[in-house]
């Protein structure tokens, strides 16, 4: 039994890269996972791989985190499919400039907010507040800079 057995996690951007690594760590610890991924094929492949590798429940849903309805539907999948949602990881990131913050344009900053801040706190957290369980929300995105 893993330390996260009987827990359900949602990871945005979980179809590849860092997000896929997070999904694999959660699955290795026993969590069921919901993979919210803009690339449907990558999400489906990631879900199949963690089911095969770790024997946990895993589903993928095509999700653009900048689309409120899609993101809220992804958040609702945990309770709908598994009866609960315990962990939210906002990992999705659609790029952006690597400039220092003071050199970023308004468009760069708005893009960062639409990919990182709003999904993590404005769209994922409120639907999870209806649960009586503790839900952890983490975001692996940040204001990228080059010192």
Annotation keywords:
147 residues; 5 strands; disordered C terminus; Rossmann fold; alpha/beta; 16% strand; elongated
Structure description:
Helix content is 44%, strand content 16%. The chain is of the alpha/beta class and 147 residues long. It has one domain: NAD(P)-binding Rossmann-like Domain (Rossmann fold, 3-Layer(aba) Sandwich). The termini are far apart.
Write the layout of secondary structure elements.
Blueprint: E1 8-12, H1 17-28, E2 32-37, H2 40-54, E3 58-62, H3 68-82, E4 87-90, H4 106-128, E5 136-139
Helix pairs in contact: 1-2, 3-4
Short description:
By secondary structure, this protein is of the alpha/beta class. It has helices at residues 17-28, 40-54, 68-82, 106-128, and strands spanning 8-12, 32-37, 58-62, 87-90, 136-139. The chain has four helices and five strands; from the N terminus they run βαβαβαβαβ.
CATH architecture: 3-Layer(aba) Sandwich
**Helical proportion, percent range:** 40-55%
CATH topology: Rossmann fold
CATH superfamily: NAD(P)-binding Rossmann-like Domain
Overall mean pLDDT: 81
Strand content: 15-25%
Strand order of the largest sheet: 3-2-1-4-5
**Number of distinct helices:** 4
* C-alpha end-to-end distance: 43 Å
Q: Please mark out the parts with pLDDT under 50 across 5 or more consecutive residues, or reply none.
A: 142-147
Question: What's the shape?
Answer: elongated
Q: What is the rounded Rg?
A: 15 Å
According to DSSP, the number of beta strands is 5
Please state the structural category: alpha/beta
The ordered H/E elements are EHEHEHEHE
Biggest sheet descriptor: 5 strands, parallel
- How many domains? The number is 1
State the CATH class: Alpha Beta
């Amino acid at each position: 039994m893993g330390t996260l057995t009987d827990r359900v996690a949602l990871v945005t951007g979980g179809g590849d890269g860092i997000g896929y690594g997070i999904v694999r760590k959660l699955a290795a610890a026993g969590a069921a996972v919901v993979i919210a991924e803009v690339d449907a094929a990558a999400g489906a492949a990631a879900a199949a791989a963690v089911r095969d590798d770790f024997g946990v429940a895993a589903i993928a849903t095509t999700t653009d985190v900048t689309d409120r309805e899609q993101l809220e539907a992804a958040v609702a999948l945990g309770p709908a499919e598994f009866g609960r949602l315990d962990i939210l990881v906002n990992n999705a990131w659609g790029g952006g400039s690597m400039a220092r913050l003071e050199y970023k344009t308004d468009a760069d900053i708005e893009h960062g907010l639409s990919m990182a801040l709003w999904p993590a706190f404005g769209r994922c957290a409120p639907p999870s507040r209806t649960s009586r369980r503790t839900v952890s929300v983490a975001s692996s995105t940040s204001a990228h800079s080059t010192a």
